[in-house]
Amino acid sequence: MQRVVLASRPQGEPSVDNFRLEQAEMPQPEDGQVLCEVLWLSLDPYMRGRMDDAASYAEPVPIGGVMEGGTVARVIESRSPRFAAGDIVEGRLGWQSHGVADANTVRKLDPDIAPVQTALGVLGMPGFTAWIGLIEHGRPTTGECLVVSAATGAVGSLVGQLGKRLGLRVVGVAGGAEKCAYATDTLGFDACLDHRAHPDARSLGKAIKAACPEGVDIYYENVGGKTLHAVIPNMNVAGRIPVCGMISWYNGATGFDATDDLSSALAVPRLWRSILVNRLSVRGFIITDHYARFGEFLRDVGPAVKNGEINYRESIADGLENAPDAFLELLRGGNFGKQLVRLTN
User: Fold this and answer.
1) What is the spatial distance between Cα 159 and Cα 148, in angstroms, rounded to a whole number?
2) 157 within 8 A of 187, measured Cβ to Cβ
3) Burial of 202 (C-beta count, 10 Å sphere; 0-12/13-18/19+)
4) Angle at 328 (CA atoms; ends 323, 333), nearest 5 degrees
5) Paired residues of 172 in beta bridges
6) Which of 325, 39, 308 is nearest to 188 (CA)?
7) Given CB 3.0 to 4.6 Å as the disulfide criterion, which of 16, 50, 126, 286 pairs with 154?
8) Which residues pair with 192 in a beta bridge?
9) Contact indicator for 48, 60 with CB cutoff of 8 Å
10) Could you tell me the sign of the dihedral formed by the alpha carbons of 227, 229, 231, 232, in that order?
11) What is the pLDDT of residues 64-112, one digit of tens each?
12) What is the pLDDT of residues 275-319, one digit of tens each?
């Protein structure tokens, strides 16, 4: 079998040198376990945090440890009555071609509902994150305005579509004209702003104001940085900000944006004042705290994906050896939709 391990901890932006592809002996399952061949690997921004040895909501990947990640896999040997060889399952086997899992930590997938890799995207953790963040923490009301950063990513693309189903005005922020056109023409957003066309937060903030003339009620935060700084002055009283991620800061950058003419010493007080004056609800959330509602999410979103009401897009890299490059491209915003690695057909 093959596996990708963390070779060293990055200092700032990661590189391929932080990873190592290894050969290893095939693991053997014990009673209550299954041995699986990985078909699909999910790449997600949170993995960047696992590369650092810092206090967080989850333990870091140790040096020499297999990189963490969600997978769709085929059972090739089962020592559990719950599964048989040939079953397709979703579980957290990590960046490797084969893995052993306890039977109670994987779930069987039905290929007739949707392509199995959607269990890593629109019908998996990213989709559930979009759903719980908007429904529970965004608390949307018909007629409100929702701004979504990283609008065509695995999370943001579903946030916007759910917002439209709930009767919201939806404005996305994405990188590049092609992604913005996809957001409006395919996903149904009311507008999408290309952050690359705006040199700083002030310029982007003016564009947000024009797209949201009655202000922003919900900002679904995936990015931080310039986009956050642009949205904050446009938030309405009693606005809500579900904080899902902050990918622009994952490599160690601080402050809002170097072109804003604001020192980091001023940035935080201005943000804090906006939260106070506008009575904003800023709620960070970790999706693992909410899995009691996963079945409810699947019942709501699954049929809409099956009948084509919900659209999704995937970026696919082939081969485990290409996972590091694909992950680095994801961190730079080079993916279009859900980033996957296909290990085998």
Assistant:
1) 7
2) yes
3) middle
4) 120
5) 148, 192
6) 308
7) 126
8) 172
9) no
10) positive
11) 999 999 999 999 999 999 999 999 999 999 999 999 999 999 999 998 8
12) 999 999 999 999 999 999 999 999 999 999 999 999 999 999 999
Query: What token pair was written down for 7?
Result: 């070779």
CA-based nearest residue to 134, from 108, 160, 104, 97: 160
Distance of CA 149 to the CA centre of its chain: 11
- Total residues belonging to the chain: 345
- Rounded CA-CA distance 275/125 in Å is 29
**95: amino acid identity, one letter:** W
Type of residue at 72: V
Q: Burial of 187 by CB count in 10 Å (0-12 exposed, 13-18 middle, 19+ buried)?
A: buried
Query: Beta-carbon neighbour count of residue 133 at 10 Å?
Result: 26
Structure tokens at 256: 């809002």
d(CA 189, CA 132): 19
Q: What does the alpha-carbon distance between residue 132 and residue 267 come to, in Å, rounded to a whole number?
A: 29
Contacts of 112 (CB under 8 A, 6+ apart): none
